[in-house]
Design brief:
Strand order of the largest sheet: 4-3-5
Number of helices: 3
Organism: Fictibacillus terranigra
Helix content: 25-40%
Order of helices and strands: EEEEEHHH
Protein name: YlxR family protein
CATH architecture: 2-Layer Sandwich
CATH superfamily: YlxR-like
CATH topology: Hypothetical Cytosolic Protein, Chain: A
CATH class: Alpha Beta
Pfam families: YlxR
Mean pLDDT: 93
Strand content: 25-35%
Shape: globular
Distance between the termini: 38 Å
Number of strands: 5
Low-confidence stretches: none
Number of domains: 1
Structural class: alpha+beta
Radius of gyration: 13 Å
InterPro entries: YlxR (IPR037465), YlxR-like_sf (IPR035931), YlxR_dom (IPR007393)
Length: 86
């Protein structure tokens, strides 16, 4: 049997490459709305974060998530990310 290729993505906060399934996707929709995409399949520009509170805090501090999505990210999105970790 062939081994399947595992898609890798980079965390925008810590810059580590990890399998796509281990990361959380945040999306900016075509309408400009920013939200957390738990399925990983919504349309729009996406950015990935490790599923750790330290990466969420680092992305908020550096503004790397806003830069990647080219849109402002509200505190509500970060609080939703932190709720998903716990």
């Amino acid at each position: 049997m062939k081994t399947r290729k595992i898609p890798m993505r980079k965390c925008v906060a810590c810059q580590e490459m990890k399998p796509k399934k281990e990361l959380v996707r945040v999306v900016r929709s075509p309408e400009g709305e920013v939200f957390v995409d738990r399925t990983g399949k919504k349309s729009g520009r996406g950015a990935y974060l490790c599923n750790q509170a330290s990466c969420f805090a680092l992305a908020k501090k550096k503004g790397s998530l806003s830069n990647q999505l080219k849109a402002p990210v509200t505190d509500e999105v970060f609080s939703e990310l932190e709720k998903g970790v716990l």
